[in-house]
């Protein structure tokens, strides 16, 4: 049986999402068609929009469905009517690369050794009188789980008349996410991180924020994003988000307890293990670890052979031999970065997943120590 500990890469489909999607797939219809089947498809999309809006405490008209979270980030950044862009050093690669692709002046704000943005540096950068600014600060990091002070950053941005966007892809369903309380102008979400399908996302846009068009086409999404809606995907996204937020008060403390159990057992069997960002507020499901000398790529393959799925840093950058950019920005030395493994729990994780991982980990550590001594 697969021990799946890679929920930050993607989360298994929740039964509620699967059921809702199957019904929508069977119903068919183009939401832009005038006839009864089209109107029924439209009703599914608009119900889903209302559900997502309720999850975040916003109005349905503020929800724009997109193809993926990556598209929503690109839309926010490339569409923002600003002269320059400021991002944190540990944003997802799609934020960094979209910002670079605009060709606008880009400033990257450093983070602490725990991955938390330097708000003083942000304020200093915003104080420069160099035109309208977009600030991008993710709510929670996909590798470390570090939760960023988005509300404080939004206050600073507002004082300087800047727009602020937050990538809340990893935060939704794991910690409370309220658009209004955060005080941001834009927010990105992705269905497959909450137990919905891959290939659906959303951009939440504060009333009054105008973006240049990014996907040209029909008049869908109130004319803001062309393309026939992915009805089944959108319906699955809403069902998953509702389920994730509904069970969050009960489920997330359980997941946190599992993660904490995992980390304490890990420290028992390998006292030298480093756990990144464990001194700051983190997502309850994420553990980012490294044991010096235990190469992450080799360990990942060994775990895979035992049917345990984990990740080396972000799924998008794994396979690259350079190691995690996020850890580099946190000042982690190359030799330790090469050993970083991300373990991320989710809605269907159990204590036996922890037991299995620790059992195999202990075996791998012993083998590594024997090889090192030989
Ligand atoms: N932002 C963050 C923080 C992510 O973790 C991811 C996915 O890994 C994305 C954006 C991209 O989302 P999607 O896979 O829907 O394009």
Bound heterogens, unique: pyridoxal-5'-phosphate
Average per-residue pLDDT, rounded, comes to 96
Alpha carbon gap, first and last residue = 34 Å
> Largest beta sheet, briefly?
7 strands, mixed
SS content category: alpha/beta
Describe the structure.
With 374 residues, the chain is α/β, with parallel strands linked by helices. The protein has 12 helices and 12 strands. The strands form 3 sheets. A 7-stranded mixed β-sheet has the order 2-8-7-6-5-3-4, with helices on both faces. Strands 9-10-12 form a 3-stranded antiparallel β-sheet. A two-stranded parallel ribbon has the order 1-11. Helix 4 (93-101) links the parallel strand 3 and strand 4 (106-109). Helix 2 packs parallel to helix 8 and helix 5 runs parallel beside helix 6. The chain is globular, with a radius of gyration of 21 Å. The two termini are 34 Å apart. The relative contact order is 0.17. The mean pLDDT is 96. The protein binds pyridoxal-5'-phosphate (PLP). Pyridoxal-5'-phosphate (PLP) is lined by residues 68-70, 73, 92, 94, 138, 142, 167, 169-170, 190, 201, 316.
